[in-house]
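Incident log, structure service

09:12 report received: a user says their structure output differs between two submissions of the same chain.
09:20 pulled the input from the user's history:
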Amino acid sequence: MEKLMRLFKDEEGVTAIEYGLIAALIAVVIILAITTLGKNLAITFDKVANELG
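09:34 re-ran on a clean worker, output below:
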């Protein structure tokens, strides 16, 4: 029972999970930003190409 209580009081695993969730959230934001920027950039290049010729 004492080992079980120590397991519940141990917070190192919780911190690692929190850092993992933060890293995953940052990765999702970066992917969404790159996707949106890529689409907007493609539209801009298409407009420029159409104007040039």
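09:41 both user submissions now match this output. Likely a transient worker issue. Closing.
09:42 reviewer note: The mean pLDDT is 87. The chain has two helices and no strands.
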